[in-house]
Amino acid sequence: MDDKKGKCPHCKKVIEELNIAKITLHDEIWGSPKGHTYTCPSCHIVLSAGFDPDEITAAIQKVVESALRKHLRT
Ligand SMILES: [Zn+2]
Predict the structure, then answer these.
(1) I need a surface site. Which of 28, 59, 61, 66 has the fewest CB within 10 A?
(2) How much is the average pLDDT of 2-10?
(3) Total tally of structural domains belonging to the chain
(4) Residue 47 C-alpha to ligand 1 middle, in angstroms?
Protein backbone atom coordinates (compact mmCIF):
# COMPACT_ATOMS: atom_id res chain seq x y z
CA MET A 1 0.00 0.00 0.00
CA ASP A 2 1.20 3.51 -0.78
CA ASP A 3 1.38 5.09 2.67
CA LYS A 4 1.40 8.59 1.16
CA LYS A 5 -2.23 8.19 0.08
CA GLY A 6 -4.80 9.48 2.52
CA LYS A 7 -7.63 7.56 4.12
CA CYS A 8 -11.24 8.62 4.34
CA PRO A 9 -11.84 9.82 7.94
CA HIS A 10 -15.26 8.15 7.92
CA CYS A 11 -14.92 4.72 6.27
CA LYS A 12 -11.08 4.51 6.60
CA LYS A 13 -10.63 3.34 2.98
CA VAL A 14 -7.56 4.58 1.11
CA ILE A 15 -8.54 7.41 -1.21
CA GLU A 16 -7.58 6.40 -4.76
CA GLU A 17 -10.05 8.78 -6.41
CA LEU A 18 -12.68 11.34 -5.41
CA ASN A 19 -16.13 12.12 -6.71
CA ILE A 20 -16.69 15.76 -7.71
CA ALA A 21 -20.17 17.28 -7.75
CA LYS A 22 -21.24 20.77 -8.76
CA ILE A 23 -23.04 22.73 -6.05
CA THR A 24 -24.23 26.28 -5.38
CA LEU A 25 -22.47 28.11 -2.58
CA HIS A 26 -23.88 30.95 -0.49
CA ASP A 27 -21.42 33.68 0.38
CA GLU A 28 -21.90 37.26 1.64
CA ILE A 29 -19.28 38.65 -0.75
CA TRP A 30 -19.71 36.53 -3.88
CA GLY A 31 -23.45 35.83 -3.69
CA SER A 32 -24.32 32.35 -4.95
CA PRO A 33 -21.39 31.20 -7.06
CA LYS A 34 -20.96 27.66 -8.31
CA GLY A 35 -18.66 25.37 -6.42
CA HIS A 36 -17.68 21.75 -6.04
CA THR A 37 -17.77 19.11 -3.36
CA TYR A 38 -15.18 16.36 -3.23
CA THR A 39 -16.60 13.17 -1.78
CA CYS A 40 -15.38 9.72 -0.86
CA PRO A 41 -16.50 7.27 -3.59
CA SER A 42 -17.11 4.57 -0.96
CA CYS A 43 -19.21 6.29 1.71
CA HIS A 44 -19.96 9.64 -0.01
CA ILE A 45 -18.90 11.77 2.96
CA VAL A 46 -17.87 15.28 1.91
CA LEU A 47 -14.11 15.58 2.28
CA SER A 48 -13.78 19.10 0.90
CA ALA A 49 -15.67 21.84 -0.92
CA GLY A 50 -14.66 24.99 -2.72
CA PHE A 51 -15.41 27.67 -5.27
CA ASP A 52 -15.34 26.95 -8.97
CA PRO A 53 -12.12 28.81 -9.91
CA ASP A 54 -13.47 29.77 -13.35
CA GLU A 55 -16.49 31.44 -11.78
CA ILE A 56 -14.40 33.40 -9.26
CA THR A 57 -12.01 34.50 -12.02
CA ALA A 58 -14.98 35.75 -14.09
CA ALA A 59 -16.41 37.62 -11.06
CA ILE A 60 -13.05 39.33 -10.38
CA GLN A 61 -12.74 40.23 -14.07
CA LYS A 62 -16.18 41.90 -13.96
CA VAL A 63 -15.25 43.97 -10.88
CA VAL A 64 -11.94 45.07 -12.42
CA GLU A 65 -13.53 45.95 -15.77
CA SER A 66 -16.27 47.94 -14.04
CA ALA A 67 -13.71 49.84 -11.95
CA LEU A 68 -11.58 50.58 -15.02
CA ARG A 69 -14.56 51.84 -17.01
CA LYS A 70 -15.59 54.08 -14.11
CA HIS A 71 -12.01 55.38 -13.76
CA LEU A 72 -11.62 56.09 -17.49
CA ARG A 73 -14.87 58.11 -17.60
CA THR A 74 -13.76 60.54 -14.89
ZN1 LIG B 1 -15.31 7.09 2.94
Answers:
(1) 28
(2) 89
(3) 1
(4) 9
